[in-house]
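DM from R.C. (forwarded with permission)

"hey, sorry to bug you on a friday — could you get me a structure for this? deadline for the figure draft is monday and I only need the backbone to look sensible"
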Amino acid sequence: MLLWGARGMGKSSLVRAAVLAIRDEGYDLALVQADAADVESLLLLLDSLRGVARRFLLFIDDWSPETAAGDVHGLRSLLDGGVMARPANVCVAVTGNRRHLVERGATSTAVMAERHVRDREEDELALADRFGLVLGFHGASQPDYLAMVEGYARHYGLPFDRADALQWALARGSRSGRVAW
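My reply, with the result:
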């Protein structure tokens, strides 16, 4: 599964909460967090999990072509199974910002001049297409952000001031769940 979208909107928190909910239902699911920067290590990890009598969720948080040394092909191979298929007892969850996963449209002359811009875009689109479940986490509108802040304030018995909440978001440059918290 791919969870993409605005920063601070709960992508990683949802993965962790889903695993806890699954465990509460009595299923044995282990959460394994890995860094996508070294695909070879991920392949070794998958090989070591193969055949283990347990289910695993391999969690790759904040993936981007930049943090993974641009290894879009390696992550695609991990998802689809290149020479070695991904074990049946392992599912993969990846979070990231859409702008990292699918950089559409060039904005500068230097980027436009890059020889293989379209090839890179196609590679990144092909990666996004490999996920069976794709969930988008969009930035919060002002009313949604204020509802989040008000909900937290009510839950913790704190006063809610709309102007203070808006000033807080403005100072942080974002209206997200993390900022509301």
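R.C.: lifesaver. DSSP finds nine helices and five strands in the chain.
me: no worries. The first helix runs from residue 11 to 24.
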